[in-house]
Amino acid sequence: MTHFRYYILPRIRWVLSILLLCLGLLSAWVALDTPLPSSAAACERLNREHYVIDNTILASGPIQYQEFQWDSVPDNTWWAVGRQGDTVQFYTLERLAGFLWRPADTLPFWQLDLTQQEDPIYCNLFGSFPGFDLSFEATPVVICTDPRVVRVEAQLISLGASERADPQAAIDSHGVSPTFTQVADGVWAAPSTLVPGSPNDSGAINLAWCRGYDADGNLVCQNLPIS
């Protein structure tokens, strides 16, 4: 009896207290009608802030830096792509723990109006992070709305100011071409890719030139960011 009173009973009370606390938190969550901070909820919050409704999340994936391993490099970040009619939404999220997420601190949301684009293909450099020598590392994701496209390529470059008159020559000189995998209808992704700095001058910008091909290998569309 003494053993039950001083050892077992306190443990039973402790377990019951935890259960009551969890039940109380669950009741408060249900009463507030607030979703848990999942990745979908984080995207929906960003949608509301930018007046986007009824869009569809097409694909998502991790941003895992291969070369940059400094303390300042973001950890546990993911990209996501959504679409609403003629606009495409790009999200950058941070995974807190388990299923808990929040928008990333830098560039968590922006959207592309497809009707304003000359070409139906575009490459977004998710998580672009600068190096010390004008290099950068990013996770490239290509979207294409032309249904004939089954394969894409992209050349990433740190383009110097003196190279902008002939970007093709610069791309041929020091562009980087990652390998893409189709992850959803109209969406292709590549692993995080290191792009060397421009060897010519310091006024560099980070760009991607992408191309789409049909099943026969014919070039269907392309997007050169600077003409």
Question: Could you spell the SSE succession in H and E letters?
Answer: HHEEEEEEEEHEEEEE
Judged by helices, strands and strand pairing, the structural class is alpha+beta
* Overall number of strands: 13
Uncertain regions spanning at least 5 consecutive residues = none
Q: What characteristic shape results from the CA principal axes? A: globular
Strand portion: 35-45%
Distance between the termini: 87 Å
The description of the largest β-sheet is:
5 strands, antiparallel
Percent of residues in helices: 10-25%
Summarize the structure.
This protein is α+β, with helices and mostly antiparallel strands and 227 residues long. It contains 3 helices and 13 strands. Strands 1, 2, 3, 4 and 5 form a 5-stranded antiparallel sheet that branches.
Question: How would you describe this structure to a colleague?
Answer:
With 227 residues, this protein is α+β, with helices and mostly antiparallel strands. Helix content is 22%, strand content 39%. It contains three helices and 13 strands. Strands 1, 2, 3, 4 and 5 form a five-stranded antiparallel beta sheet that branches. Strands 6, 7, 9, 10 and 11 form a five-stranded antiparallel beta sheet that branches. Strand 3 and strand 4 form a beta hairpin. The radius of gyration is 24 Å and the shape is globular. The model has no long low-confidence stretch (mean pLDDT 84).
